[in-house]
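Q: My labmate handed me this sequence with no annotations at all. I'd like to see what the chain might look like in three dimensions before we decide whether it's worth expressing. Could you predict it?
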Amino acid sequence: MRTLEKAVYLLVFLLIWEGASGQTVITGRLLDEGQEPISNVSVIYGKIGTSDVLGYTKTSENGSFRFEIHIVELDSLRLDFNHMGYSRRTVHIPNVSGNFSYILKDRVQKIQEITVGNPPIYRMKDTINYRVSAFTSNQDRVIADIIKKLPGIEMLGDQIYYQGKPIERYMVNNLDLMEGRYAMINQSLPSEAVKSVQVIENDQPIKMLDSAVPSDRVSLNLELKKFVTTGTAKIGTGYSPLLWDSNVTPMTFEKDFQMLNSFQANNIGVDAKSALDALYNNSSYFNQSGTTTGPRPEYVYLQQPASPAFDPKRWLDNRVFLVSSNGLKRLKGGLQVRGNVSYFNDLQKRSGATVTQFFADGQTIINSEEISNHSKTNDMEARLTVEANEKSKYLKNSMVYHRRWNADHGNILFNGTEDVLQRRNITDEAFLNSLTLGRFIGKQLFDISSVLEFNKTPQVLSVFPGQFNGILNQGDPYDELKQNIIYNNFRWNNSMGFSNRIKFWFITNYIGLDFKNSGFESSIDLASDGTISKGSRDFTNEVKSSQLTISAGTKLNWSRNKWKLMAGIPFGLNYYNAEQHGEQVVKNIVRSTFNPSMGITYKHNMNSELSLTAGGGNHIGGLENFYSGYIVQMYRRMQRNEARLLNSTTFNTKVSYTFNNTLRANFANLSYEYSLGNRDHVLSSTIDSSGRTSVSISDLGSQNHNHRLRGGISKFFPLVKTVIKVNSSIGRNGSDYLVNNAMERQRASIYSGSIEVINNSLDIISGNYTMSWNKNINSYSSNLTNTIVQNNHFLNLTVHPLDLHTLKINSSIYTNNLPGQRNQFFMDAVYRFRIRKWKADLDLSVQNLFNNNNYIHQFVTEIQYIQSSFRIRPRQVMVSTNFIF
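A: Here is what I predict for the chain of 885 residues:
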């Protein structure tokens, strides 16, 4: 063991050179007039004759303090001692190492009587506190009802944004139980259990880096009124068709133990499984990969009608069963253990009609599809995490097993004449272990990170009757096409870093070694008259590929007074190998990457902050594109990629300004983003007269760019209990594409805006109104232009005519500029009777009161304009009981 320790010390000194610099160590002790030590005294050192602050600390419980000073050009220093109970004292000392002792005199100060209010929003250092009771109305039940009202905060679906930035930690009593899957807490924790919602700006989750590495992260913490066992439950039934909805979610929040269990089942259009989505990946300064399994490529899919751009509860035809169990235990020594297990079974039906226009070589190709699909998904995940997060050490190890298996089938009537049946089966299995360790060796911070992941994803697509006759079967019709795919992948990412503080700089040098190995096999089977024939080499793939990356770089962090600077200088050397059908198509090809980035922040005061970020570099195309044999991705789309490395360069920058005045409850943000990408290739699409598409890669260069300006303001008016939020954005982008051997360019202009008013001033009536407007203008090189305008309005009212009785009316209007499309008007109503003794609600609800059954949706891609008519849920009546326990 001693030999290993010596080796580690030797490695530290060999890899890191620490420049020699003068150092003064000042120690001392402060005593009162009775010779008793004084704790918590502010000790500031600076230059004599100025008010500059060069360093700061506080005395410990025994009255002692200590400084390490690296400023050799000063002969003497000024020390200031400040404490509310003692007279302020300033002394001058020589800039040499020494130990000093001083006595502070008692100070008697008469404090005038003051009245302290209970403000709805207040700041403590970097933490903004929202008092929940100031934003609560009679209809609020869970904490999500409160969070969506708060000024400065937006909720897009289940994801929470503060001043335009997504939160990166969601905690209850400063513990992260769900690791990114916070929607389940948000939707189930009773709001009455929460004292305040806290937004933590500049949050550094790793304690040993708290004073060394500045952070621009935003986290959210729920401060509970007390340690509690609580939760929600719901059971309901209804008609059209037979409907059910059940949800039981108990949870416990103690000082050192937290647990949440949930069982949910419904067929009313509530997408319960979305509560298991990871809304952040737990990446850190040491481990940028995070602790979630990476996305695997899906090569085959069913053609789907485009989903409407509004609440899924109005259109999702589902049947879902979900169970989730989550626990966290904090042990002695700062160690905590977290376990998360979940499973769901989800059956979804989607029906609609789609008309697609392809813009190809100056002409427009149109096809139509009437679609009816059934998709069944099973998903299971188990996760175990051990973490120690202390000032002197950091340890986190996450082990994840994930398995998903799908069985999908669909019927399509193509162009009103041809019936096509599709079936898809896909299994995705993955295992991941992520380890991060950081600790000090002397004054040097040493960290290691290792991520090991394996996954296997077999996929099968069957199409009846067979398609692409001219390409696959010499023009002759045949009964069935079957696309078979087996994809597997192994990756092992490792890095090691050494960090040191030099004056105001925190410098990390790191090296890394990453290895990735992938296998990809595909074949196309054709069946005709009971006979199955294999396709040729043009329609099969046997790819084996590997990538070895040696990386090195430096991270720079500097912080002083109102300024923060962060920069990264990463360099990678990549070795590629690939085989196709046993032949070496890529052999020891070496490519380097360099992707520097920087960010600078100026905090003018506690209320306003200005930041600038920029980055860019070159990227090499992934080996998952190395298949030269065609793959049938869906019944009317084929694709293949020639075996070569794809290169691209990117540049992106963002400047943003945020303002918050908690005293006046004002919040504002404004940002501008620009990105530019250049590629040495372009996707080439060939479209036939029926809209069937084959895609390959062309060696022509292409470019894309994007501009986006967005901003928002929000304000809380406490006297009338009203929140107003206004958001807007303007975007311009352009992208090159190749279709039927003609190079084209798509340009888009996107304008959007919204205003929301939330009022809880009266006990008898409350509500909120939201207006959103969006305009998309898309133009193509062939002088084709398409404009889509959407203007939507939402009005939700809650009336309390009598004690214990509530009537809720939710209405929405969806409008667009589509000729012949009438405006869509929806209304839902809920009558609620409160059973106060049981803390329960008895609800009678009607959804889609006017029984709308169809919605037309429009959107565009580089080569398509798509208009989709989607079947939505009919009128439904439910009786349900909701409990808080």
